[in-house]
Write a structure and sequence with these properties.
The protein is of the alpha/beta class and 356 residues long. It has two domains: 2-123 and 290-355, Periplasmic binding protein-like II (D-Maltodextrin-Binding Protein, domain 2, 3-Layer(aba) Sandwich); 125-288, Periplasmic binding protein-like II (D-Maltodextrin-Binding Protein, domain 2), CATH 3.40.190.10. It is 43% helix and 14% strand. Strands 1, 2, 3, 4, 5, 6, 7, 8 and 9 form a nine-stranded mixed β-sheet that branches. It is globular and about 60 Å long. It starts with a helix and ends in a 9-residue tail after the last helix.
């Protein structure tokens, strides 16, 4: 009886949700002076090529709808644009190479954006890459941290000039890593998957985190500003071009860019583990991360084609292991995640913010 009551409760919530969507459509139209007919998506440069591919397929399948506009603005910048308000002047959705933050949800609510649909569109490996002409050995998170931290382990300014200064087993070439800017979700992932892991390899840093989280964050995440780390902008293809032309430089970007440019660049193994599709899918590659699409539920009924676009994204033939996004380098999420995503897209299920 308890399960039956739960089903009734869910059904009631769906009914209320549909009523709310109808009201939201009127609100969005009122805010914008009329319903917008073209989907607009901003956000992550990592997710950009996947969403662009879905937009192209959507236009072929549904020629009666205008082609969606997809812009690469970086995860943080894209979410900020999406959350800035309701109406035609604000994007409908944001690609993200990390999960949305509670502070961003609060910013959405402050501007009247209440309710987001969250789709995990796949998995990515955050790769340290090198030119095809280079022969850089395997790195560890500790190596990366010691090379790039402004104040390694809080012991003073970073004096390492070559990789051999960091680890005698590494080559004696100048440290130069081209990576994402602070507005990028890839930068957030880099901090989490490389800098923090490398920093916490020192027991004293784990103790510091328990004692003073702000000091720990400063020591672990702040990168040096003397040219060893170069911000490459939001366009990951430019980073690919720069390291392809400079065999002594390394770059930081998603696995799909390595896959698509395998004639120019290759990965540097992390802890001896190559960044391959199978290693990322199985969770063996240490720097793996989920990718997301966030959609304003209030815009779904107001913008023609939004339901169909979401349905196209959440098809097995799109994001499955043999789907067309896999051919662009997307690593398929586990099957239960994909099935849950299909249900979210079908039912327009609103993200439960309590879990953020």
């Amino acid at each position: 009886m308890q399960q039956e009551g739960s089903r009734d409760s869910r059904a009631a919530r769906v009914g209320l949700g549909l009523t709310a969507l109808a009201a939201a459509a009127a609100l969005v139209a009122a805010c914008s002076g009329g319903s917008r007919t073209q989907i607009r998506i901003v956000g992550s440069s990592t997710v950009y090529p996947f969403t662009t591919a879905v937009a192209e397929q959507f236009k072929r399948k549904w020629p009666e709808f205008p082609a969606p506009i997809v812009e690469s603005t970086g995860t943080g910048g894209g979410i900020k644009l999406m959350c800035a308000g309701l109406g035609a002047q604000f994007p409908d959705a944001a690609n993200a190479s990390r999960r949305i933050k509670r502070s961003e949800l609060e910013d959405c609510a402050k501007h009247g954006v209440k309710g987001l649909i969250e789709l995990q569109v796949g998995i990515d490996g955050l790769v340290i890459a090198q030119s095809r002409e280079a022969d850089f050995p395997s790195l560890t998170e500790r190596d990366i941290y010691l090379a790039l931290a402004a104040n390694p382990f809080g012991r003073g300014p970073n004096r390492a000039r070559t990789w051999a200064d960091v680890n005698p087993a590494l080559p004696a070439i100048r440290i130069e890593v081209i990576g994402p800017p602070p507005t990028s979700g890839t930068r957030d992932s880099f901090n989490e998957l490389y800098m923090l892991k490398g920093c916490d390899s020192e027991p004293a840093m784990q103790a510091l985190k328990a004692r003073d989280e702000a000091a720990h964050k400063q020591i672990c995440e702040k990168v040096r500003e003397d040219g060893a780390f170069v911000e490459g902008g939001e366009n990951d293809n430019l980073i690919v071009q720069k390291i392809a032309a400079n065999p002594q430089a390394l770059g930081v970007f998603g696995y799909s860019f390595v896959e698509e440019n395998s004639d120019k660049v290759k990965d540097v193994p992390l802890g001896g583990i190559p960044a391959s599709y199978d290693n990322i899918a199985a969770g063996r590659f240490p720097a793996s991360r989920p990718l997301y699409l966030y959609v304003k539920v209030q815009h779904v009924p107001a913008v023609r084609g939004m339901r169909e676009f979401l349905a196209e994204y959440a098809r097995e033939s799109t994001w499955g292991r043999s789907g067309y996004l896999a051919r662009k380098g997307l690593v398929a999420a586990p099957e239960p995640v994909r099935r849950a995503g299909e249900a979210v897209a079908r039912n327009l299920t609103v993200l439960d913010e309590a879990g953020i």
